[in-house]
Design goal:
alpha/beta, Nucleotidyltransferase, domain 5, 2 domains, five-stranded mixed β-sheet
């Protein structure tokens, strides 16, 4: 199995390649520089593995949620590559990728992922390990942090230990920290990485979830994606 993954949905930019049981990856925190960096990263992992695009089985991409501009760059690059290579696409949640990263690097089996969505909101998802992949429990949402935390009141606080990852917890940690009995911030993961999309993409491929290029779509969570941008923000 040969799957390429690309992600530009947040401040991080990354590409990774799965070839059988081998993985190749590039990652860099590079705000506002994704368009210049992503294709060289793709070429680097292909060169390292000695593959060309037309040898791939599928291309995975960070479908969001995240920066509107970043998500659009990611899906556009993935569609262009997939169209040229004649392979299908697999959309992977950025929230799930972060949870997968905490599992890979810290051994977490229960993770709360939250990305700062600006406008006093967060993108949020709850994940638990199933097999070797982090699986979504419930739905991914965009919400006011206080409203989200209120859903986990005294009678609904998540029992046991949970890991917390993402800029949403960095910005609203005091509010969101009440959601679980014990909430431990990740020490190694801040943004999603294409490397952590590979096991999720492999699982999706085996489940027959790859789609044709023209059927691939981003996930913004917000109903409106053309809001007024604040100075210096996306």
């Amino acid at each position: 199995m040969k799957i390429l993954a690309v992600d530009t949905a947040t401040e991080a930019c990354s590409a990774a390649l799965l070839v059988g049981d081998k993985q190749y990856a590039r990652w860099e925190e590079a705000p506002r520089d994704h368009t210049r960096k992503i294709l060289p990263m793709v070429q680097a992992v292909l060169d390292e593995a000695g593959l060309s695009l037309d040898q791939l089985d599928a291309i995975a991409f960070g479908r969001g949620p995240g920066s509107f501009t970043g998500v659009r760059i990611g899906i556009s690059v993935a569609q262009g590559l997939a169209f040229g290579a004649g392979v299908p696409l697999i959309g992977i949640s950025t929230l799930a990728a972060m949870a997968q990263g905490v599992h890979r690097q810290e051994g977490a089996t229960r993770v709360l992922s939250a990305i700062d969505a600006r406008m006093n909101e967060v993108y949020f998802g709850r994940y638990e390990l199933q097999g070797d992949c982090m699986a979504l429990v419930g739905e991914e949402v965009v919400s006011d942090p206080a409203l989200l935390a209120s859903e986990f009141g005294a009678d609904a606080v998540l029992p046991g230990n949970w890991s917390a990852v993402g800029t949403g917890f960095e910005t609203y940690g005091e509010v969101l920290g009440t959601m679980a009995e014990t909430l431990v911030p990740s020490q190694q993961v801040r943004f999603p990485a294409a490397l952590d999309m590979l096991p999720l993409a492999r699982s999706a491929w085996l489940a027959g979830e790859a789609v044709a290029v023209e059927q691939a779509s981003p996930v913004y969570l917000r109903d409106k994606v053309t809001w007024k941008k604040l100075p210096g923000r996306e």
